[in-house]
Write a structure and sequence with these properties.
76% of the residues lie in helices and 0% in strands. The protein is mainly α. The chain folds into two domains: 1-200, Growth Hormone, Chain: A; 263-493, Up-down Bundle (Growth Hormone, Chain: A), CATH 1.20.1250.20. Helix 1 (18-36) crosses helix 6. The two termini are 16 Å apart.
């Protein structure tokens, strides 16, 4: 997938210890946890300080994902151990400063600092497996990283809700800082020293950082600060197109580009990772909203339901990973979207039948995702020289995050627009002549009607997600081949 000619890796003969895997998995858990853990405590912080509490969530993820590609490139230059010594302190400083801040603006700023540290740590966790573990030994540590990421992101909301109720929102930042210090120490003491010493393409790094920043800001601002269809959206998307064109020119002319050169035929794993995020994971969050708002389920039960998605993912992932290097990636990029489409199709028809039906839908959705996510990452790492492992791994995960958030933006716009139009139509048929603003202000008068409309809107989006999941099949057919997992001329064992 990438170019060769990198010489002997400075990590030749070195390995990834079990202690390092445990430490990195704990760091991965904290970096993914720290986004969703503030989903409900932000309301209490806003009550204490005023201001826009939503930025406490959004600025963290914007900073984390924006810094990922650059952090991966710098890790190729300085090595995972040295970069860990930068990432953990930055995360801790941001975490400990938040409860000490005296106003909302300072908390938001320090959350962004925390996100920068999380992005560096996140890049190290996944890239270290590719750098230090031979291709045949990467499956087990990657399963640990995937489990840590899943538990942190899926159950962070419930943990944050509980910690806020028991100890207060300030304790959430302290707990995060302590956990990342423990994980960072376990990893740092066993990670080997070493770095490629290659000087990064700083101009290319600036371009890719601006591109990711533009897309991340768009995902957090659209639907809230400006509509999906409007001048602001057009301006931000045009900016992304211009940055992509400039980046393509830079990659072609640079001797060591910030993003490794990808031939068209071998860009499939990156494209498919984006689509998995957009089509599948971008929709999953609305199933939580369905349980909380539509069914009145409490946060703990709603979060526990995602255990079925985790179990479904582990079932298919265990089967697929054992066969990845013998069959290639393409069979799983055919099987996964089909299962994912079935899961969302079931959700579009069965979610109203209660929690057992939702458990089944999440299990099937998890099975579809389990066929693709870790398999795509192993495909990328299996065809990347160690000296470029940080860059390609971080790029892969950036495309996943951007896909998830842009998918969420799209589905949210569909839900909101359909909810608005249906609410006006249904209430109009009942003789109501008031506008939607009045309806929202007097939500209690129309609770049952609006709840039913919300449920039907989420179900409608599940049907769209089922259809869109099949786009991955098209991408897999045209943009993947056997060399996506088996390119021995690029493998640095």
């Amino acid at each position: 997938m990438m170019g060769s000619g990198d010489g002997v890796s400075p990590f030749e003969g070195k390995s990834l210890s079990k202690g390092a895997v445990k430490g990195l998995a704990l760091c991965m858990f904290v970096s993914s946890l720290s986004w969703m853990v503030m989903r409900y405590p932000e309301q209490y912080i806003q009550t204490d300080y005023g201001g826009d509490g939503a930025l406490i969530l959004s600025l963290y993820i914007v900073a984390e994902v924006t810094v990922l590609p650059l952090a991966g490139k710098l890790m190729d230059m300085y090595g995972p151990r040295r970069m860990l010594s930068y990432g953990v302190p930055i995360f801790v400083v941001g975490s400990m400063a938040c409860p000490l801040a005296g106003d909302m603006s300072s908390i938001i700023l320090f959350r962004a600092v925390q996100g920068v540290g999380a992005g560096i740590v996140f890049a190290i966790c996944l890239s270290s497996v590719g750098i230090l573990a031979p291709r045949s030994q990467r499956i087990r540590p990657h399963k640990s990283m995937t489990a840590a990421f899943s538990f942190g992101s899926l159950y962070g909301s419930a943990l944050g809700y509980w910690l806020n109720g028991v100890l207060g929102w300030e304790a959430i930042f302290i707990v995060s800082a302590v956990l990342v210090v423990v994980g960072g120490y376990l990893a740092y003491k066993t990670l080997p020293d070493g770095a490629s010493g290659v000087i990064p393409d700083m101009f290319g790094s600036v371009l890719v950082t601006l591109l990711v920043l533009d897309l991340m800001l768009f995902s957090q601002l659209v639907n809230g600060y400006f509509p999906l269809v409007g001048t602001e959206t057009l301006a931000m998307l045009l900016s992304a197109v211009v940055l992509v064109c400039l980046l393509a020119v830079r990659i072609r002319g640079s001797g060591d580009p910030v993003i490794p050169r990808i031939r068209l035929m071998h860009g499939g794993p990156f494209l498919c990772m984006f689509l998995v995020g957009f089509c599948g994971l971008g929709m999953v969050q609305f199933m939580m909203m369905f349980m909380l708002l539509g069914m009145g389920t409490d946060i703990y039960i709603a979060s526990a339901m995602y255990l079925f998605m985790t179990i479904g993912g582990s079932v298919t992932s265990k089967f697929c990973l054992k066969r990845l290097y013998s069959t290639g990636l393409k069979p799983f990029l055919f099987m996964g979207p089909l299962i994912l489409a079935v899961g969302f199709l079931l959700a579009s028809r069965m979610m109203v039948f209660g929690l057992p039906a939702i458990a089944l839908c999440l299990f099937v959705v998890g099975m579809g995702i389990g066929c693709m996510v870790t398999e795509i990452l192993l495909s990328v790492q299996g065809t990347t020289p160690r000296s470029k492992m940080g860059s390609s791994t971080s790029l892969t995960m950036s495309t996943r995050f951007v896909g998830i958030l842009l998918g969420g933006v799209t589905y949210k716009a569909i839900v909101v627009n359909r909810l608005e139009s249906e609410a006006v139509r249904v209430l109009g048929e009942g003789g109501a002549t008031v506008d939607l603003g009045w309806i929202v202000e007097h939500y209690d008068l129309f609770y049952d009607t609006l709840t039913q409309l919300f449920e039907s809107s989420v179900q409608y989006c599940c049907g769209i997600a089922a259809v869109m999941s099949l786009v991955i099949l098209v991408a897999a057919y045209f943009f993947t081949d056997r060399s996506d997992v088996d390119a021995p001329e690029f493998v640095d064992e």
